Amino acid sequence: MTATTIGVIGLASLVVLILLRIPVAVALGLVGFFGYAALDGFGRANLMISGVPVEFASTYTLSVVPLFTLMGAVAASAGLSSDLFQAGRVLFRGARGSLAIASIFASAMFGAVCGSSVATALTMSKVSIPEMLRAKYPPALAAGAVAAGGTLGILIPPSLILMIYAIIAQQSVAKLFMAALIPGIILTVLYSITALIYYRWLTGNAPEPEYAQRQSDTLVRSFARIWHVILLFGITLGGIYAGWFTPTEAAAIGALGAILLGLVLGRHKMSDTVACFFETISLVSSLVFIVIASAVFSYFVVQTGVSNQLIGVVKGIGLGAIGIITAVCVLYIVLGAFLEGIGMLLITVPITLPLVLSYGYDPVWFGVLLVILIELGLIHPPMGMNLFAINAVTKDIGILDIYKGSVPFLIAPLLLIVLMIMFPQIVLWLPAQLH
């Protein structure tokens, strides 16, 4: 049996295991180990399984993951989301659909210190959905705005998905963070425009409800309550951009800063800080297990040469650069309806990245594109994780309304993808300015 045949059988086996609901980490590890054993025997496979995970887990870049995760856990525990929503509410007061736009703004700001989409959606669901329903907003709009805003948590740096992509694709975390910043701002604006249009479409010419406009805070007072979020984001990302410290150092400073600010401002106690540490340990330990399993799988895929064979087949078909990136986008949109983001990333990147690079695309650009495609999966009915997260904590909105509300917001990331393909400098300009 040829190496390519073993590779194809391995990939097919992986699909079957995932369809059988075997955990992604277990599926990746099993296929990687037994696939490599089929290539070179169990003796070599045992050597690989004992060496690759240790080498991969000791990668310096991996240290940013627990530190930024801790920063996000502390930010959520300190109740920053409520302050951010109130600031957005004041900022957009008077606009049609102001509460939906405020929710998207707050999600973008919270994502700047969180890094997780589902965590952002869960947190903002508890804060902004009750306020929108109290103001008589259509339930579908309230759910859709929060679901879409939640996706900004994995695009606006620090992003957990971008950190994992940096590790498996061996790219610079700093460049990926900078590359995602401008698309993140553009997507925030596109989501806000979508919310504005959707509100008008659902309510016609009805005026903004009085409750939505009722606000006692001034703009200055509202933003004075979120100075710590701006400070944390400015120090971590600004320090990376200026070259003052590495992403790992920035993550450490951000985590320590979040803890100190939470304690100084009286937002949480030492017991809350300890709880955040345990939450981080629980999340990161399971995540590292998945990443190590993906390293074993990637090693197997490289040895089979499946990626090179795929490149040859695709180029033989005659697809151009635009054709291949369109096909890849369609593939990820379809997969996003069945797989969660991290699993999809770890399973596919060892195969799709070499293919895309062979057509001259930049790996940093492709990483940002992948995040946006994963965002689509997070709000794409029927399996979007953000939709289920909102349904779990919001008893006043049915799942069908959540599905209905998410559909108009799919247009914004699709439009951003088109803009990125037409104008790749949207992604690549800022990383080129890194000191």
TrEMBL record:
Family that this chain belongs to: Belongs to the TRAP transporter large permease family.
Protein name (record): TRAP transporter large permease protein
Pfam families, sorted: DctM
Record keywords: Cell inner membrane, Cell membrane, Membrane, Transmembrane, Transmembrane helix, Transport
InterPro entries: DctM, TRAP_DctM
Membrane-traversing stretches: 6-39, 60-80, 100-122, 143-168, 180-202, 223-244, 250-266, 278-301, 313-335, 342-359, 365-388, 409-430
Subunit structure of this chain's protein: The complex comprises the extracytoplasmic solute receptor protein and the two transmembrane proteins.
GO cellular component: plasma membrane
Keyword Ion transport: no
Single GO term (MF): transmembrane transporter activity
Places the protein is found: Cell inner membrane
